[in-house]
Amino acid sequence: MDTAPPDLSPKASGSKRPPRPMRGSSPALPSHLVHDSIASQPTISEDGLKGTFEPPGPQQTKSSLWQRLGLGVNVESVEWDILLISTCLKLLLFPAYRSTDFEVHRNWLAITHSLPISKWYYDTTSEWTLDYPPFFAYFEKVMSIPAYWIDPRIVDLNNLNYDSWSVIAYQRSTVILTELVLGWALLKFVPGSQHPSMQRIISASLFLHPGFLIVDHIHFQYNGFMYGILLWSLLMARNGNTLTSGILFAVLLNFKHIYMYMAPAYFVYLLRVYCMSPSGEILPVRFLTLANAVILVFLLSIGPFALMGQLPQLLSRLFPFTRGLNHAYWAPNAWALVTALDRVLLKLVGKTGFDLPVNESGVASSSRGLVGDTVFAVIPNVQPFHTFAITLGVLMVFMVKLWRVPTYKSFLTALTLCGYTSYMFGWHVHEKAILLVLVPLSLLAAENHAYFRTYLIASVAGIYSLFPLLFTPAESLIKLVYSLVWGIIVLVPIQRRVYEFPHSPAFVILDLFERIYLAGFVPLHLVVTILPYALGTSKEFLPLLLTSVYCAVGLVWAFIRLSVIYLRSPNLSSHSTAAVQ
């Protein structure tokens, strides 16, 4: 007998105990009054944004330093405490492990400071060549100026692998300072939120996210700065300033091209909301305004290189398709499961003698843990065209839904799924790309129980998948303790707010399996911690394989969950976060 699959989108489950409001914030509203976008609200003439601003509470009447500086946010004492404590922790991490990305960025400082712009994308003095878009190169150029004042050897092109205290302190400080772009955007999300206390928790969770601590402040990158630009763009979209949202996203694309995976959601949303009338007619003036603004951004970025005839060289640096399907450490996505399946089939062929064709060049390829082309032994090989076609096909399904329901909440969910789809099915995906999923998904975490459950599974699996980036003993303890503390502080209060008891046998079973999976990270961590000592240099890639495959199971399931929630939601109204309940 055919049975319908369980509906993963949440249903109404009766009354829920209202959350206890935090001191200094307005009481929580009933779920049917909650909304995720701006209803008809007064226009704020100072910045041209439309938004919901509650009257100042007893702790909000005092002008803050940020207000006096004209930055338009009211910073409460707890938020200053978060900034102070997090900054102190990041300062203490200055001597921590640094990946090769640290030398990559030091070399980019040297390239942009020592060479004329015409040679930036041609220099090969170091193997760490410049392969980010021009805005990031300009960003490095600006940072190279104070670097030269502090220590001229930092920007010496031939001073490879320079690791004095001056360069360590300077580069780590720039990560902390530029991350304030993220903090400022997160503070601006609070005004206009129907539940400021919950939005403060979500904003704090993003500013303190273990992903940023691991990838930026230890491993070393500038993700906080660039995700800050993304959040500013999303904030503009939430507040109805869609033109500014589109311009900021164009700026972001010219800082790091990985965000192009989110471009389909922006294209559909801006076209439907900004360039078309409610009746579906194209608004030519708005369309040309948006097009010209985006073109201007790209001209400022790549214009100088186009005039010098360097576009082919620039594109070859930005899109190196000579790399393989998987990174050295398999990003826990769909291809990690396919690669693991190929390993299992290869073992079965060897033990059972099944008459299956085996590609000898693929026998060692997928398990060696090196950067290079991935060749399967039993399963047919995957080419870049295959990953592109699958990614595009899945994205089109979500874009059709966004076209039909172009609300802010629909846009935010579709944007998350764009990043998620590229992570699941993209070519040569890095494990750090999971932030493309976790950052926008965090903004949906408190919508309802279904969104939170998806966020919970994706966060646990996604954060744990970053653990192999830090493999030294000291940092191993830091990443574990910090992530556990973050999870308790952030996940527990959100769950209390949105929790719903499973209301059908299918959901009871589903809930049980998800709990078992989450609990499985405890034995997984014990195994991958002990294995290197037990095996020595033998099968040294096995702990990474186990981590990748186990995390991939959760991330694939969370992707399916979020896809079903989005596609089966009858109405993603911009005026009700309870629309899918």
TrEMBL record:
Its EC number is 2.4.1.-. It catalyses: an alpha-D-Glc-(1->3)-alpha-D-Man-(1->2)-alpha-D-Man-(1->2)-alpha-D-Man-(1->3)-[alpha-D-Man-(1->2)-alpha-D-Man-(1->3)-[alpha-D-Man-(1->2)-alpha-D-Man-(1->6)]-alpha-D-Man-(1->6)]-beta-D-Man-(1->4)-beta-D-GlcNAc-(1->4)-alpha-D-GlcNAc-diphospho-di-trans,poly-cis-dolichol + a di-trans,poly-cis-dolichyl beta-D-glucosyl phosphate = an alpha-D-Glc-(1->3)-alpha-D-Glc-(1->3)-alpha-D-Man-(1->2)-alpha-D-Man-(1->2)-alpha-D-Man-(1->3)-[alpha-D-Man-(1->2)-alpha-D-Man-(1->3)-[alpha-D-Man-(1->2)-alpha-D-Man-(1->6)]-alpha-D-Man-(1->6)]-beta-D-Man-(1->4)-beta-D-GlcNAc-(1->4)-alpha-D-GlcNAc-diphospho-di-trans,poly-cis-dolichol + a di-trans,poly-cis-dolichyl phosphate + H(+). It is an enzyme of class 2 (transferase). It is found in: Endoplasmic reticulum membrane. Keywords: Endoplasmic reticulum, Glycosyltransferase, Membrane, Transferase, Transmembrane, Transmembrane helix. It is a multi-pass membrane protein. One of its GO terms (cellular component) is endoplasmic reticulum membrane. Coiled coil: none annotated. GO terms for molecular function: dolichyl pyrophosphate Glc1Man9GlcNAc2 alpha-1,3-glucosyltransferase activity. Residues 1-32 are annotated as: Disordered. Pathway: Protein modification; protein glycosylation. Pfam families: Alg6_Alg8 (PF03155). The chain crosses the membrane at residues 258-275, 287-307, 385-404, 410-429, 450-471, 477-495, 516-535, 541-560. Its main location: endoplasmic reticulum. InterPro entries: Glyco_trans_ALG6/ALG8. One of its GO terms (biological process) is protein N-linked glycosylation. PANTHER family: DOLICHYL GLYCOSYLTRANSFERASE (PTHR12413), DOLICHYL PYROPHOSPHATE GLC1MAN9GLCNAC2 ALPHA-1,3-GLUCOSYLTRANSFERASE-RELATED (PTHR12413:SF2). Belongs to the ALG6/ALG8 glucosyltransferase family. This is Alpha-1,3-glucosyltransferase. It comes from Thelephora terrestris.
